[in-house]
Amino acid sequence: MSEPSRSARERLIGAWRYVGTRINGGNWDRGKNPKGMIYYGPHGEMSVQIAPDVERKRAGAVMTPEEAFVALRDYIAYFGTYTVDEGAGTVTHHRDDNLQPGEGGDLVRRYELIGDRLVLRPPNSTMEVTWERIK
Amino acid sequence: MSSDRERLIGSWRHIGTRIDGKADGARGRSPKGIIMYDVYGHMACHVSPDREIAKAGKEPTPDEAKAALADHIAYFGTYSVDEKARTVTHHKQGSIQPGDKGDVVRGYEFAGDRLILRPAGTTGHEIIWERIK
């Protein structure tokens, strides 16, 4: 099937590697080599994780509050389901659970598919998160 | 007959963890989670404890961060399957848990729509998943 004849939902399906985040024209600082993955399943399930490139140390057998604070900062990890609105050009992430305390509910992202790349943009923001298809 | 690797591919919903046949209560009554294996050898896993974690301010305090991380599993990377040993190895590229690096080996068993993973070197410890379809 040629690309244009496939629905955006079909094109989203699969796993994507995190490339980077830009905001106000500059890079969002997640360290030198942050890693991440977003996954859209064929049955409407999704998950995402982005790990900033920082050392998540644990000196003893049990983490200290300070070690937990460093590990958690800016780490994105949530999962749930997703729906696509092709007319609006948006994908909504319905979060079942989120690593970050006190943050739940839905997230709407405008999507743009360019070749092997996927760019997600939160509404009313200059932020763009770029992903590359894993293949 | 598909290979074990092919049978793993897809996403699986967390059903629960059992220790010596009993539900492990460490993550509360109804923990949620997902594990996915893709066709190219990538995987991601996330299991959240069933508990409310408060956050008073905009950013969590160290104590709130520690409470949020306790018993929370979130990592991703690649995987490889040893069909002879019936194990799948998760090669972690990122994990939320401080100090959590390297590989984890899981014995696997398919039971209908379910996948049972058993951490290598343990007995009686089962993590149960159901295929999302």
Q: What is this entry, summarized?
A:
The complex is a heterodimer of chains A (135) and B (133). With 135 residues, chain A is mainly β.
Describe this structure in words.
The complex is a heterodimer of chains A (135) and B (133). Chain A contains two helices and nine strands; from the N terminus they run αββββαβββββ. Chain A has helices at residues 8-12, 65-72, and strands at residues 14-23, 26-27, 35-40, 45-51, 76-85, 90-98, 106-114, 117-121, 128-133. In chain A, strand 8 and strand 9 form a beta hairpin. Chain A has an eight-stranded antiparallel β-barrel with strand order 1-3-4-5-6-7-8-9. Chain A has a single domain (3-133), classed as Lipocalin (Beta Barrel). By secondary structure, chain A is mainly β. Chain A is globular and about 55 Å long. Chain B has 133 residues and is mainly beta. Chain B has a single domain (4-131), classed as Lipocalin, CATH 2.40.128. Chain B is built from two helices and nine strands, in the order H-E-E-E-E-H-E-E-E-E-E. In chain B, a hairpin with a 5-residue loop joins strand 8 and strand 9 (125-131). Chain B is globular and about 55 Å long. The relative contact order of chain B is 0.22. At the A-B interface, strand 3, strand 4, helix 2, strand 5 and strand 6 of A face strand 3, strand 4, helix 2, strand 5 and strand 6 of B.
